[in-house]
Amino acid sequence: MSGILNVTGGTPLTGEITVRGAKNFVSKAMVAALLGNTPSELRNVPQIKDVDVVSGLLRLHGVDVDYDVDAGVIRLDPRNVETAHVADIDAHAGSSRIPILFCGPLLHRLGEAFIPDLGGCRIGDRPIDYHLEILRQFGAVVDKRAQGIRITAPRGLHGTKINLPYPSVGATEQLLLTAVRAEGVTELRNAATEPEIIDLIAFLQRMGAIISVDTDRVIRIEGVAELHGARQTALTDRIEAGSWASAALATGGDILVRGASQAGMMTFLNTFRRVGGAFEVLDEGIRFWHPGGELNATVLETDVHPGFMTDWQQPLVVALTQATGLSIVHETVYENRFGFTEALRGMGATIQVYRECLGGAPCRFGQRNFYHSAVVSGPTPLRAADIEVPDLRGGFSHLIAALTAEGTSRVGGIDIINRGYENFMGKLEALGAQVSPG
Ligand SMILES: CC(=O)N[C@H]1[C@@H](OP(=O)(O)OP(=O)(O)OC[C@H]2O[C@@H](n3ccc(=O)[nH]c3=O)[C@H](O)[C@@H]2O)O[C@H](CO)[C@@H](O)[C@@H]1O
Ligand SMILES: C=C(OP(=O)(O)O)C(=O)O
């Protein structure tokens, strides 16, 4: 597929699509499979770039990866894990942040690991200080090099007590993947508890781990000497489901998202309803539609689970350009996630970004120079433009904007979208979008 898409807007997206497993679970569960001494199997695996990247990295480390794309089944055999060449790891790390999660499993299997330069969306600085501190507390030695970081565990890995400064998803996963086979007990306070993490814990438990999730963000892990392979069906990608819901709202459409599940989306659904969107939870998924009439402006703050997820923010902001009145969006998870609004302004949207914490409680980014609040004034008709995709969700948001706008937009850099949206071109076509490769 070319990196450019011509998108002619004005047609409400209508029809049905299927969303498969969550990018933010599948990629981590694939890494967890490294910890077993027998093969694991994951089902409902989507064909996205992040799954390719992790497959490549696992193969480099001697894991046999067998992926039946149509069936969505991936089988991972980690019985012959081996050390990979640093240059190869670097070359394969690509666009994903997942390589950092290989540390715990590789330290347990091989006694050393290497963290290459990480990818992932440029929506903030995205430091890895919590990860390195966690590894050090387990007893690992962190050796920063000119390129990448080498981690070793000359005296093994030992359970520890950790209190995270912020409930980071990746750091919580780093701790889980290290603690399950460390010697002794580990206690994590201020843990992230996103549904994808709870499912990762469930997968680790199936592999033989002992993990309890207590109230108030406390997770306790009793290390075990050995884990075995397990099977699990991935939970649906709630970010993708929310993205299509926002697309239905912005374009005045009606989309049945097969596979979407209410459980991880309650906060999104409440906001969707407040804004004026309609939805119906069915056995096979969730139907989202624009019921006609005006949409309502809203005040919204992104937060860790169970709050409104940051990854839902960008697509919903496009729908808010079509709502009547002033919407206020306070981004509290990433300091730099409003870059995508520049293109929307060029298309006619009225969006102002601010350094202040607007509309909610002060966050970590207040009084610093980050434009992390936005005021959207609507409704504004959007007009076609030539735009360049900045990041994964920002990219999908640009697609929604182009589909909402009058005229034909040229959207460049769309390959990034493959990182988290399976077959988005096929789905757009199925929903009646007028799109053609540029
Ligand atoms: C592959 C994956 O699952 N990505 C998700 C994961 O990203 P990721 O795991 O990278 O996100 P984190 O929850 O770790 O990041 C949250 C915040 O913590 C900060 N932080 C994080 C680690 C660290 O060592 N130091 C530090 O300061 C980050 O800069 C950010 O401001 O959770 C995010 C929050 O739900 C989602 O937006 C991403 O889609
Ligand atoms: C920020 C995201 O992902 P990653 O952590 O993979 O960059 C995302 O999925 O929106």
From TrEMBL:
The keyword Phosphoprotein does not apply. Residues 7-428 form the Enolpyruvate transferase domain. UDP-N-acetyl-alpha-D-glucosamine binds at R97, D311, V333. Pfam families: EPSP_synthase. InterPro entries: Enolpyruvate_Tfrase_dom (IPR001986), Enolpyruvate_Tfrase_sf (IPR036968), MurA_subfamily (IPR050068), RNA3'P_cycl/enolpyr_Trfase_a/b (IPR013792), UDP_GlcNAc_COvinyl_MurA (IPR005750). Phosphoenolpyruvate binds at K23, N24. It is found in: Cytoplasm. Its main location: cytoplasm. Pathway: Cell wall biogenesis; peptidoglycan biosynthesis. It is an enzyme of class 2 (transferase). It comes from the Bacteria. The keyword Coiled coil does not apply. Transmembrane segments: none annotated. The active site is at C121. It catalyses: phosphoenolpyruvate + UDP-N-acetyl-alpha-D-glucosamine = UDP-N-acetyl-3-O-(1-carboxyvinyl)-alpha-D-glucosamine + phosphate. Keywords: Cell cycle, Cell division, Cell shape, Cell wall biogenesis/degradation, Cytoplasm, Peptidoglycan synthesis, Pyruvate, Transferase. The modification 2-(S-cysteinyl)pyruvic acid O-phosphothioketal is found at C121. Its EC number is 2.5.1.7. GO terms for molecular function: UDP-N-acetylglucosamine 1-carboxyvinyltransferase activity. Belongs to the EPSP synthase family. MurA subfamily. Cell wall formation. Adds enolpyruvyl to UDP-N-acetylglucosamine. This is UDP-N-acetylglucosamine 1-carboxyvinyltransferase. The lineage of its organism: Bacteria, Bacillati, Actinomycetota, Actinomycetes, Micrococcales.
